[in-house]
């Protein structure tokens, strides 16, 4: 059994025609963009984790009482 699944989406006909004229493989392009987006999400999650650790160090009560 394959590790791949099929997904589908609707794309304007003009866009498909333009990409074909430019020699762009839509499937390959979308796979690459999805992987890039996944990488950005992982990176953002790590940044959020780091920020959470920093925010946990800050004593909000002390700041509010000054």
Q: How is the main sheet built? A: none
Residues in β-strands, percent: under 5%
Stretches with pLDDT under 50, minimum 5 residues: none
- Provide the gyration radius in Å: 22 Å
Shape: elongated
Order of helices and strands: HHH
Instruction: Give the count of structural domains.
Output: 1
Q: On the 0-100 scale, what is the average pLDDT?
A: 90
- State the separation between the terminal residues, measured CA to CA: 63 Å
**Structural class from helices and strands?**
mainly alpha
Count the DSSP helices: 3
Extended strand count: 0
Helix content: 55-70%
Task: Compose a concise summary of this entry.
The protein is mainly α. The chain has helices at residues 13-21, 26-57, 60-64.
Could you walk me through the main structural features you see in this protein, from its secondary elements to its overall organization?
With 66 residues, the chain is mainly alpha-helical. It has one domain. It contains three helices and no strands. The protein has helices at 13-21, 26-57, 60-64. The longest helix has 32 residues, at 26-57.
